[in-house]
Amino acid sequence: MENTFSVCILYRNQYLFDKLVAELKCNGFVKEVELIAINNAENAWDSYRAIRYFIEKSQTDYVLICHEDIEFKQLTFDQLTLAVQSAVRHDERAAVFGVAGISRKSNRGCGHFYSKRGEEKWGIQDHGRAISLDECFLVIRKNSGVTVSEDLSGFHFYGADLCINSERAGFTNYVIEYPIAHYSEGTLDGSFFKARDAFEEHLKVIDYRGFIQTTCTFLYGGQSSIKRGFSLAVSLLMVKNTLHKDFQKSLHALLRRGYKLYGKNSFNFFLLFARYYIYGRKVLGNIHFIWSYIIVGIIYWKVLYPVSWPVRRLVGDIQWWSHRILKKTKV
User: Fold this and answer.
1) Which member of 23, 165, 235, 304 has the greatest number of CB atoms within 10 A?
2) What is the CA angle 248-107-80, rounded to 5?
3) Structurally, how many domains does the chain consist of?
């Protein structure tokens, strides 16, 4: 039987890699799977270069790129195949898949996985259609031709880059129901924010002209300095709302950067506007929930209740006559 999946891993920790490979074999990733791995203990590779290599080297229909520190738990190869095929049946243009990301419909977190905080159920809206995907677990449909950009390097934002390239080529991206465990939070250090700047510059080069959110930051690709300041402010608040281990360090780095680029007063205004954006969405979500109850109530009292009058009258008459008959019988 021909291989259908290539499992591709760029790793540094030999123990975690060996543990993951053993788990893959136990969970059925054997007959239809080829393994492509790169030992990056000397840091000679970056993720973008490795992904281009994995896609070129792969001889299968799907290329699975994952971190060495994930756990499949009881998830099998057959379950992964079914999850991907389900997305493809729903949308034949589906080309990139992940277990967590940002919903294209709601622009909120989307997915189901396990983290150090326990089970994370973000929900899967609109069949999982996503604008960006988390990098811990990515599946690429090889015949789509989707790959990462040549002008980018490093270890961040390749999930968002794949999704953008996929959509620019006419394909779509999906979060699938495949709840792996990923206990590492990654890093939000200086290299992350340098990569963030580089990715925003890349968005300008490809004329993206809009905002894009990932699971840990908010980016803008156009020419407007105001919108770029707003995206930086939203990123700061996203970090502030998490319990990330690099919380304090990244918070101060973003604040210093905002004050340096826009001045203290101007950036504080961006922060105020960003707060309205983040918390306003939560309030609007609650308002939507409340309005649903109001609408259901109006429909019941103004439509269903009046229309049901003959039935209610009949039930009332039956009860009244039953009571009379029982009373006479007792006498």
Assistant:
1) 235
2) 95
3) 2
